[in-house]
Design a protein that fits this description.
- The structure holds two protein chains of two kinds.
- Chain A is 45% helix and 11% strand.
- By secondary structure, chain A is α/β, with parallel strands linked by helices.
- Chain A has a single domain, classed as Rossmann fold.
- In chain A, strand 1 (20-25), helix 2 and strand 2 form a beta-alpha-beta unit.
- In chain A, helix 1 runs antiparallel to helix 5 (127-142) and helix 8 crosses helix 9 (181-189).
- Helix content of chain B is 73%, strand content 0%.
- Chain B is built from eleven helices and no strands.
- The termini of chain B are far apart.
- The chains are: A alpha/beta, B mainly alpha.
- The A-B interface holds A 7, 10-11, 13-15, 17-18, 20, 38-39, 42, 44-47, 50-53, 55-56, 58, 81-84, 183 and B 30, 34, 37-43, 46, 49-50, 52-54, 56-61, 121, 204-205, 208-209, 212-217, 220.
Chain lengths: 190, 312
C-alpha cells in the first residue's frame, strides 16, 4: 500500500493553490466579491473560483453580520462540506458584533459556534484587505495552522453546547423537517 | 503474449497522453476566457491542481451504489470512446470505430452522470438532469443528419476509412455538403462540451451547477478526469472526420511519423477548441426551450441540406 503521507506536501500545495469559494453573503459584503472575481483584482490568478455547491467547496466565506436565522444555514452548509475546509469571516460583525454590538438579534462572536480560521476586520474591508486575508489563509495552509476542521471535530461538545443554547435542543431535526418533510416522514415510517 | 502486452502498453500510453492533453485543454479554456475578460487567469496546470486537491479530500460523501457506479460508468464509456477514435497511426480499436458507435459512446457519459446525480436526491441535480436530457434529445437531430451526410458522401461508416479517404480527396470541409455538416456538428459540439450558449444544464448561478451539485471529493475528481478525456476525445473525433485527421508517412522512422501526426492532430484539436471557447465567451446562455428550439431549427436545416446535397 502506498504511504500517502509522502504526498502531503503536494496535497498541501494543491489545497493552497485551488481554493474553491462558497460565499455566504448575508447582508453587506457581497458587493466586495464581484471586483475580486472580475478583471480588477482577478482572484483566479491564485486558482480560486466562486462555487455554488457546498459539496465541492474548500473556503467558506461568511460576509457581513450573522443572525440566528442565517447561523442555522451557515452551520448546516459548513457541515455539508468535505474535509479539509476553511472558514474566513469577513468584516467586523462576525468578529465582535461591529455596529450591531448591542443588537438583540445578531450573533456577536461567530467563533463560539464555528471554528473560524481567518477574520478580516473592517467595516467593510476593501478588496485589498480580503486579498490580504486570502494570502494569510494560504500561508496557514502551508504551515499547517489552518486546522479549523480538526478543531470542530475535537471540540464538538463545546460548539454544540453553544449552538443548542442559542437554538434549543434538537434544532437540526426541526429544521430538517421544515426543509425536507418527505425525507423525514419516510424515516419515521421505517 | 507479446501482442497483448504491446496493446496494453499502447492503451495506457494513449490514456495518459489523452488525460494530460485534456487537462491542458481545460487550462487553455480557462486562460483564454480570462484573457477575453482582460484578466490574467490561472496557470495552465490549474485543472491538474484542482483534481489533486479533490482526490486528496479527507472525507467523502456517498449516496449509495448507483451514485458511485454512475461516475465509473461515465469514465469507462469515455475511455472506450477514446480507444475507438483513430489517433494518427496509433489507436487500438480504430479499425472497428464506426461513426454511430463513437457518437453514441461520446454521449453515454452524460447518462452516467445523470444516474449518479438523480440518485443523490438533490432537487437541483434532478432539475439539471432533466435539462441535460432535453439537450441530449435536442442535439440528436442535427447530429444524425451530419452523420448521414458523412456516410452518404464517403459511402462508409468507418472513421478510419473516412480519414484515409480524406488523404486523397482533401479535407471534408472543402466539399460543400460536408462543410454544412461540419457547421451543424460544431454547433452540437458546443452542447457536448457544456459551453456557453447551451450550458443551461450546468448553469452555476441558476441551478447551482445542476447535476454536479452533489459531487464532492473523489467523485468530483474522477469527473474532472472524465471531463479532460472527453474534451480530448470530442475534439479528436471532429478533427478526424472533418479536418482530415493526420496520416503522415514522410519520415523514415515510424516514431517520428507518429510524433508528427500527433502534433498535427494537436493543432487541429486546439483550433476546434478555440472556436468553442470564443463562441462560449461571447454568447449568453439560452434557456432550455430556446436551446431545444434552436437545435431543432437551424443546425437541423443546415445538416439536412448537407445530407440532401451529399445524396444527390
Amino acid at each position: 500500500m502506498v504511504d500517502w503521507r509522502l504526498f502531503e506536501p503536494l496535497f498541501d500545495f494543491a489545497r493552497r493553490k485551488s481554493l474553491w469559494i462558497v460565499a455566504f453573503c448575508t447582508g453587506c459584503g457581497g458587493i466586495e466579491m464581484p471586483p475580486l472575481m472580475t478583471s480588477r483584482y482577478d482572484l483566479e490568478r491564485f486558482g480560486m473560483m466562486p462555487n455554488p455547491a457546498p459539496r465541492m467547496a474548500d473556503l467558506f466565506l461568511i460576509t457581513g453580520y450573522v443572525t440566528p436565522k442565517t447561523l442555522k444555514r451557515i452551520i448546516i452548509t459548513y457541515e455539508m462540506q468535505p474535509d479539509p475546509k476553511y472558514v474566513m469571516a469577513h468584516g467586523s460583525c462576525p468578529l465582535n458584533g461591529g455596529i450591531y454590538w448591542d443588537a438583540y438579534n445578531a450573533i456577536k462572536h461567530l467563533d463560539r459556534y464555528l471554528p473560524v480560521d481567518v477574520i478580516i476586520a473592517g467595516c467593510m474591508p476593501r478588496p485589498e484587505a480580503v486579498m490580504d486575508g486570502i494570502n494569510k489563509i494560504m500561508e496557514m495552509i502551508e504551515n499547517g495552522t489552518a486546522d479549523g476542521w480538526k478543531r470542530y471535530k475535537e471540540n464538538y461538545e463545546y460548539y454544540k453546547k453553544n449552538q443548542d443554547e442559542l437554538f434549543g435542543e434538537g434544532w437540526r431535526e426541526r429544521e430538517a423537517r421544515r426543509w425536507i418533510p418527505w425525507l423525514m416522514n419516510r424515516k419515521k415510517e421505517e | 503474449m507479446v501482442v497483448v502486452v504491446e496493446t496494453a502498453l499502447k492503451a495506457v500510453l494513449i490514456l495518459l497522453y489523452a488525460t494530460f492533453v485534456g487537462f491542458m485543454f481545460m487550462g487553455i479554456i480557462r486562460i483564454v476566457t480570462a484573457r477575453i475578460h482582460r484578466r490574467v487567469g490561472p496557470p495552465i496546470y490549474q485543472p491538474i491542481l484542482d483534481t489533486i486537491k479533490l482526490l486528496s479530500k479527507k472525507s467523502n460523501i456517498t449516496h449509495g451504489l448507483i451514485y458511485d457506479f454512475g461516475i465509473i460508468y461515465a469514465l469507462g464509456a469515455t475511455i472506450l470512446a477514446l480507444m475507438f477514435i483513430p489517433l494518427g497511426s496509433i489507436g487500438i480499436l480504430r479499425m472497428y470505430g464506426d461513426l454511430i458507435l463513437i457518437t453514441f459512446l461520446l454521449e453515454i457519459p452524460m447518462l452516467g452522470i445523470m444516474f449518479a446525480a438523480m440518485s443523490s436526491g438533490n432537487p437541483w441535480a434532478g432539475l439539471g438532469s432533466q435539462r441535460a436530457l432535453l439537450t441530449l434529445l435536442a442535439i440528436q437531430v442535427p447530429l444524425g443528419f451530419a452523420i448521414v451526410a458523412l456516410a452518404e458522401s464517403y459511402g462508409t461508416f468507418s472513421t478510419y476509412q473516412i480519414v484515409m479517404a480524406q488523404q486523397s480527396m482533401g479535407w471534408s470541409i472543402i466539399h460543400l455538403p460536408l462543410l454544412l455538416a461540419a457547421v451543424a456538428y460544431d454547433l452540437v459540439l458546443q452542447a457536448m462540451f457544456g459551453k456557453e450558449p447551451f450550458d443551461i444544464m450546468i448553469a452555476p448561478g441558476e441551478i447551482s451547477l445542476g447535476p454536479m451539485v452533489e459531487f464532492g471529493g473523489k467523485h468530483m475528481g474522477i469527473l474532472q478526469i472524465q471531463h479532460a478525456i472527453a474534451l480530448f476525445a470530442e475534439t479528436l473525433f471532429f478533427s478526424n472526420i472533418f479536418l482530415g485527421g493526420a496520416v503522415i508517412t514522410s519520415f523514415a522512422s515510424p516514431v517520428l511519423n507518429t510524433l508528427a501526426s500527433l502534433g498535427v492532430l494537436l493543432i487541429k484539436q486546439i483550433a476546434v477548441l478555440m472556436i468553442a471557447i470564443f463562441m462560449g465567451a461571447i454568447f449568453p446562455r439560452f434557456t432550455i426551450d430556446q436551446a431545444a428550439r434552436f437545435y431543432w431549427k437551424w443546425p437541423t436545416i443546415i445538416a439536412a441540406t448537407g445530407a440532401i446535397l451529399a445524396a444527390l
